[in-house]
Amino acid sequence: MGVIFIGYGVHKKYSRRSYLLGDDEIMIRWGNVWSDKSSIIPLSRVQHVDQEQDMIAKRLGLSELTITTAGDDHYIVGLTEEDAVQLRRQIIELSKLVNEDAYYD
């Protein structure tokens, strides 16, 4: 019975994870069986975006994006490698367009 409950909890945790990339912000939703949480990040506040993989995720072809702002780190997990690279490039390009007073090479 415990294995079924753990499997159900893991399924609900990852099924409630999502993101929505807009022109000037990104919304990240996550949660578990008991709660839902969301975070809206203005792209003008993004400092850098990292793509990370551990050994198990690399074998499964999955990646995690870490979006760093001045106040916190935000995570998007369970992305395929191609989706993570594409989303990372989109976030970087949109944050450059929004942040007009910053210097970029």
Short description:
This protein is α+β, with helices and mostly antiparallel strands and 105 residues long. The chain has helices at residues 2-15, 55-60, 81-98; strands spanning 18-21, 25-31, 36-42, 46-52, 62-69, 73-80.
> pLDDT under 50 segments (min length 5)?
none
- Care to count the β-strands? 6
Structural class: alpha+beta
Rg is 16 Å
Number of helices: 3
Q: The biggest beta sheet, please?
A: 3 strands, antiparallel
How much helix, percentage-wise, in residues?
25-40%
Shape category: globular
Helix-strand pattern: HEEEEHEEH
- Strand line-up in the sheet with most strands: 1-2-3
Residues in β-strands, percent: 35-45%
Provide mean pLDDT, rounded.
82
Distance between the termini: 57 Å
Salient structural properties:
6 strands; three-stranded antiparallel β-sheet; 105 residues; globular; alpha+beta
Q: How is this structure best described in words?
A:
The protein has 105 residues and is an alpha+beta fold. It is built from 3 helices and 6 strands, in the order H-E-E-E-E-H-E-E-H. It starts with a helix and ends in a 7-residue tail after the last helix.
